[in-house]
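User: Sequence recovery, please. Input:
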């Protein structure tokens, strides 16, 4: 099954995350099918960048999202609507 989830990058105690499309059986930081966004909780305004068109495309194809990614996409959509 294809999942949309976070992949951790960065240094020890200074993480940032990529929102990736990957096979569910792969390790968290293994090679992904496609990177569709970024999330950095350590910046002053928290950075959430998601390519919503690619996200919607993968969900339409049947990709399952993690709870965290669902929350981040909801936040990204609300930020985009506020602009």
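Assistant: Recovered sequence (83 residues):
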């Amino acid at each position: 099954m294809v999942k949309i989830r976070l992949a951790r990058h960065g240094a020890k105690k200074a993480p940032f995350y990529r929102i990736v499309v990957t096979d569910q059986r792969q390790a968290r930081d293994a090679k992904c099918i496609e990177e569709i966004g970024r999330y950095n909780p350590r910046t002053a305004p928290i950075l959430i960048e998601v390519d919503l068109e690619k996200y919607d495309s993968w969900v339409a194809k049947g990709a399952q999202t993690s709870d965290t990614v669902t929350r981040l996409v909801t936040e990204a959509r609300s930020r985009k609507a506020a602009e």
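The radius of gyration is 13 Å.
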